[in-house]
Design a protein that fits this description.
Helix content: 25-40%
Structural class: alpha/beta
CATH superfamily: NAD(P)-binding Rossmann-like Domain
Largest sheet: 7 strands, parallel
Number of strands: 7
Distance between the termini: 29 Å
Strand order of the largest sheet: 3-2-1-4-5-6-7
Strand content: 5-15%
Order of helices and strands: EHEHEHEHEHHEHHE
């Protein structure tokens, strides 16, 4: 990776004509996202830990899964059934690092599935030390009138409700020193006009993180969140036009989209003892976009 942050990943213009149906697959993106497959080097920071990562099949979730495995953790990943091919690719990288991987397909908008994810992780891997709430649904709107009840409910169920259900289920198994890491977004503060519903869910996640941090600190459990900016992941081409894809990240101070691999070290920090005095924090990884 180039030491110059402006050149540490591909720069726009990117290939714009790569729209995909939901939920989007890594294999259809050009250039292929960098998840740290060839670059992330572990330091044993999560040796012996067990992690559950939602949306761990691709994008930021895959980068985190690879990093956690190379740091010594066994990893369970959740994803939608149609993302099986991406999930199997991620599992191969986890197993190549010498760690166990549990593949858990299903829809986190369903409360019972969220609780079952925790139960299957504990049964399959022997416990749960780190919960990464990363999976998200993104909808766009041109006007307020475009917002439908279906979009509103579905987005909040995937992005916010699932975090409550997963955290509730995880608490029965987490010990002092465990951690929860949530994925919010720069949209929690920027709130672009086309991202009304998505931004509202990401703002809720930021507040939820603080509330959970205060609630769980007496149990020795830390809760933090990461706020990505424009990152080169499959969520982008399912909601953006070819013109927007060509220039993704061009409006950031660093002038490019971020790569998933550039997020992974922050998730490692927040899950490990290296971040032992961090709780209730929101860590921006935005290419310089301010979050005021």
């Amino acid at each position: 990776m180039n030491d110059d942050p402006r050149e540490a990943g591909p720069r726009p213009p990117y290939q714009g004509d790569q729209q995909q149906p939901r939920p989007g697959l890594t294999s259809q993106m050009h250039p292929r996202p960098d998840h740290g497959e060839e670059s992330y080097v572990g330091k044993g920071l999560l040796t012996g830990r067990i992690a559950l990562i939602t949306g761990g099949d691709s994008g930021i979730g895959r980068a985190v899964a690879i990093a956690y495995a190379r740091e010594g953790a066994d990893v369970a990943i959740s994803y939608l059934d149609v993302e099986q091919s991406d999930a199997e690719d991620t599992a191969a990288w986890i197993e190549k690092a010498g760690r166990r991987c549990l593949l858990l397909p299903g829809d986190i908008r369903d409360e019972a599935h969220c609780r079952d994810l925790v139960a299957q992780t504990v049964a399959g891997l022997g416990g749960l030390d780190v919960l990464v709430n990363n999976a998200a649904a993104q909808v766009v709107n041109e006007t307020l009138a475009d917002v439908t009840a279906t979009d509103l409910e579905g987005c909040f169920r995937a992005n916010v409700f699932a975090m409550f259900y997963l955290a509730q289920a995880a608490m029965a198994h987490m010990k002092p020193g465990s951690a929860i890491v949530n994925t919010t977004s720069v949209q929690a503060k920027v709130a672009g006009k086309g991202m009304l519903v998505y931004a509202a869910t990401k703002g809720a996640i930021a507040s939820l993180t603080i509330g959970l941090s205060n609630l769980l600190a007496p149990q020795g459990i830390r809760v933090n969140c990461v706020a990505p900016g424009p990152i080169w992941t499959p969520i982008q081409p399912i909601v953006k036009s070819p013109q927007e894809m060509e220039q993704l990240g061009a409006n950031t101070p660093l002038g490019r989209a971020g790569q998933p691999a550039e997020l992974a070290p922050v998730y490692v920090l927040l899950a490990s003892h290296e971040g032992s005095y961090m709780s209730g924090a929101l860590v921006p990884v935005t290419g310089g976009m301010p979050m005021l």
